[in-house]
Design goal:
This protein is of the alpha/beta class and 160 residues long. It has one domain: Rossmann fold. Helix content is 39%, strand content 20%. The chain has five helices and seven strands, in the order E-H-E-H-E-E-H-E-H-E-E-H. Strands 4-3-2-1-5-6-7 form a seven-stranded parallel beta sheet, sandwiched between helices. Strand 2, helix 2 and strand 3 form a beta-alpha-beta unit. Helix 1 crosses helix 5 and helix 3 packs across helix 4. The radius of gyration is 14 Å and the shape is globular. The relative contact order is 0.18. The mean pLDDT is 95.
Length: 160
């Protein structure tokens, strides 16, 4: 496995448990990111995170799971590189700082905190079936649109 320093790092944040429709959206989003050559960063556990990782791995992508606990084995089976932080929910900031742009899919208060951190730090946030009406979140209606916007925004961040 070889990493390109220039590869875009896209974070997917979202619900730790989700229904089948949301999981399919996350899987498709992960797959599309991998096909575009992006590294997928996430919280490394279940729900949206697991589905996105599954999609990325199915397309030959690399997934980095920022785990809240001390044990890398807690990562979902589709995490390529688990990073055990021992930070609990504070690991959300690690995900944000590691990403060039983020795609929020569904989610509750943990996702809301990640959105807030990202916006405060000037990171682009693309919303897909997530918190509505948060100033600064770019809302989209499909995985394709979310991935295209995330990559566009991440590239713009790199050129700042």
């Amino acid at each position: 496995m070889r990493f390109r320093k220039s590869a875009l790092r896209i974070g997917i944040i979202g619900a730790g448990s989700c229904d089948t429709a949301t999981a399919e959206i996350a899987r498709e989003t992960g797959r599309l990111l991998a096909e575009r050559g992006a590294l997928l960063y996430c919280g490394g556990l279940s729900g949206v995170m697991e589905a996105a990782c599954q999609g990325a791995v199915s397309a030959g992508g690399t997934t980095i799971g920022i785990i809240p606990g001390n044990t890398p084995q807690d990562a979902n089976p589709y995490v390529t590189i688990p990073v055990a932080t021992g930070l609990g929910q504070a690991r959300n900031l690690v995900i944000i700082n590691s990403s060039d742009a983020l795609i929020a899919i569904s989610g509750r208060y943990g996702t809301l905190s990640e959105i807030a951190f990202a916006l405060k730090l000037g990171k682009p946030v693309i919303g897909l079936s997530t918190w509505r009406e948060i100033p600064g979140v770019i809302e989209t209606s499909s995985p394709e649109e979310a991935v295209n916007l995330a990559i566009k925004e991440a590239l713009q961040q790199r050129w700042k």
